[in-house]
Design a protein that fits this description.
The protein has 378 residues and is of the alpha+beta class. It contains ten helices and 19 strands.
């Protein structure tokens, strides 16, 4: 029989210690709230991600006093996009950004939240329970240990395939049937061939007929690879490594023989919409709120921007809960995140069609500042 831990209470329970959850925990804890941050995985961790932080991400970090974080972690400045399509390459200017390995960034953000007073509990799963007039129950499990905690507000930032709202009436995730699957790995600096091709300060984006591969050098010299593939390509090639090799070859990028020996991770289907985004004493943010295929750091920007935007509503929700808070969050998320995701969704659709993909490449060749206009800083 599982052990039981005595019940406890918090102002806010945050489920998921990724960028959205950790930043929200940090911001709320530094304002004096009692915050519990729970995460199902152990830390530090590596996660499939492009490791890129754009202007939206930088602005969100600065808004909670963490504007120095990326540079303090040894992040590399990003200024260019090298795009490969059909054996040709084009180089474009990017709005200034940073490249930082996710395992170091996530760990640093969690440590900052702990330093601000948040309680952190890794290797713990969480699920929403019943709501009362003044609190929401959250069921926690850590191995054989179980716990029920009460929170005035619960922030669900548990990632793409979370099950935190499994018993919430009307909770549903719609997955686009054509959604691509994500995959990624890290190649150590000593293992890389054609070292000069993958220069720091650039995002290298190889676009193929049935997927794309993004590569960026991070602070320790390693090469972070994040990709999105059609299911059919993965089935035909038999592995993410083989699929990545095919896309790189189509784009005319150098081969990376060590892909087959790399430690690959995969993700659930990328393009999805989740409902509801809010309910009685809970708000959903980050990847858990819905996602589309990102390209140059948009995913990190959405997560961090949502975390910065949720603080005023969480603060208000610690008192008497008003349904107006739910409507405000849905509206805020649509304005600050939804519109930006629409741009990425449109770009992803365009890149799936050869004619439109060639048109975008032609424009990138002749208008090197095009990405700056498509991805403006906030």
């Amino acid at each position: 029989m599982a052990e039981t831990i005595p019940e406890d209470s918090f102002d806010v329970v945050v489920i998921g210690a990724g960028p959205a959850g950790a930043l929200a925990s940090l911001d709320l804890a530094r304002r004096g709230l009692r915050v519990l941050l729970v995460e199902k995985r152990s830390f530090p961790r590596w996660k499939v991600c492009g490791a890129c932080f754009n202007g939206q991400a930088q602005a969100a970090l600065a808004s909670v006093g963490q504007g120095h974080l990326l540079e303090s972690l040894g992040g590399l400045r990003l200024r260019r996009l090298r795009l490969g399509l059909g054996g040709r390459q084009a180089s474009c200017a990017l709005p200034p950004g940073w490249a930082v390995s996710r395992h170091r960034f996530d760990q640093a953000l969690v440590e900052a939240a702990i330093g601000a007073g948040a309680v952190f509990r890794p290797e713990t799963t969480a699920q929403l329970g019943a709501a009362s007039s003044h609190a929401r129950c959250v069921h926690l499990r850590q191995g054989r240990r179980q716990q029920q905690v009460q929170a005035a507000v619960v922030l669900v930032a548990a990632g793409l395939a979370h099950r935190c709202l499994e018993h919430e009436p009307g909770a549903h995730t719609h997955i686009n049937p054509r959604s691509r699957l994500g995959a990624g790995c890290v190649l150590a600096a000593a293992d890389q061939q054609a070292h000069q091709h993958w220069e720091e300060g650039s995002i290298h984006m190889a676009v193929g007929r049935r997927g794309y591969v993004g590569l960026v050098r991070v602070e320790d010299g390693s090469l972070n690879l994040a990709a999105a593939f059609d299911r059919a390509l993965l089935q035909e090639t038999g592995s993410a490594a083989a699929a990545a090799a095919q896309v790189l070859a189509e784009a005319g990028f150098p081969a990376l023989p060590q892909l087959a020996a790399a430690d690959w991770q995969s993700t659930a289907a990328l393009s999805r919409r989740s409902t509801p985004l809010a309910g009685n004493r809970f708000l959903v943010l980050g990847d858990a709120a819905g996602y589309v295929e990102p390209f140059t750091g948009e995913g990190m920007g959405w997560a961090l921007a949502a975390a910065a935007a949720v603080t005023p509503l969480a603060l208000a929700g610690v008192g008497p809960w008003q349904p107006a808070l739910e409507r405000r969050w849905i509206h805020t998320h649509r304005q600050r995140i939804g519109r930006r995701q629409l741009l990425c969704r449109s770009l992803a659709l365009a890149l799936r069609h050869p004619a439109s993909a060639r048109g975008l490449f032609w424009a990138a060749e002749r208008l090197p500042s095009l990405p700056q206009s498509l991805m403006p800083c906030p």
